[in-house]
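User: I'm writing a tutorial on reading structure tokens. Could you give me a worked example: one chain, its sequence, then its tokens, then a sentence or two explaining what the tokens reveal?
Assistant: Sure. Here is the example chain.
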Amino acid sequence: MFDSDYLEGCLPEILEALQKTNFEQTSGYGNDKYCEKAAEIIRKLCAREDADIHFMVGGTQTNQTVIASILRPYQGVICADTGHINVHETGAVEMTGHKVLALSAQEGKITAKQIEKTIESHYREDGPEHMVQPAMAYISFPTEKGTLYTLSELESISKTCQKHHIPLFIDGARLGYGLSSPKCDVTLQDIARLSDVFYIGGTKQGALFGEAVVFCNRNLSVDYRYFIKQHGAMLAKGRLLGMQFQTLLENGLYFEVARRADLLALEIRKAFEEKGYKMFTDSYTNQQFPILPNETIKKLKENFSFENWVKVDEKRTAVRFCTSWATTQEQVQTLIQEIKTL
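And here are its predicted structure tokens:
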């Protein structure tokens, strides 16, 4: 199955850690030594001793809570039209009363110029108070299409956000896969330097569940725990989150498994390209999007599971093959041998 990167449970190291500490008694709601240790590791990796860290369960929950906690009732969030909060979260952000201001994206990315134009256009209108005020920028790293922002692009976006006094929020549900890509020129410290808030995804990267929210601008996290509780997002057994991130991050396991997943995905990409199939996006992360004839898709689905992504024309469809922290070389080789017979 190559449908997504959260089909399996979790890394064995996490199960081992949970088993070893199963009967320990700790304080609840994230006020425990494991969450404290994980937060300490994250601050060190980000080179941001001033960062405020909070652990949450899932990506949609995190996106909704972070955005709702920062925006005032009349404000909205700028994002790509392909962005997760705009497409795959059932209007979770808008349910809290904040409009998603979607911009046309190229390869899943928006630009600093687009953000600036959106903000400036708002204030050029007569009576801007009649429209939703753009007050936050949201991007994903990597994007929903597996593509990466370059360091230069991130610096431009960050600079534009600072110029207009709006926070930059980076969705890092697949952050490790992005940072570990051979084509990435961005570091975790760059992410922490250029964003106001971001999160390190665990659910899709080897944890049973969990996302680590990193507020680099502490002015934005005042009373954030109230918002977590109000959104039903405060896990009583919070130590389960801290322990998982401690295990993932303290010895580099998080980036090690992400790097391997990326390289396996690129082997799949190479196999499709060698057969003459084009890619829908230029992804160098764990998501690959070959454009295949519909008959070929039907044949491949006899033995493999993957997502139909978007219809290209009457005869072809872009599909998604996704590797994960748990994907094996043997599984990929089995797929590649099948591709060779197409």
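What the tokens reveal: The two ends are 19 Å apart (CA to CA). The chain is about 40% helix and 15% strand.
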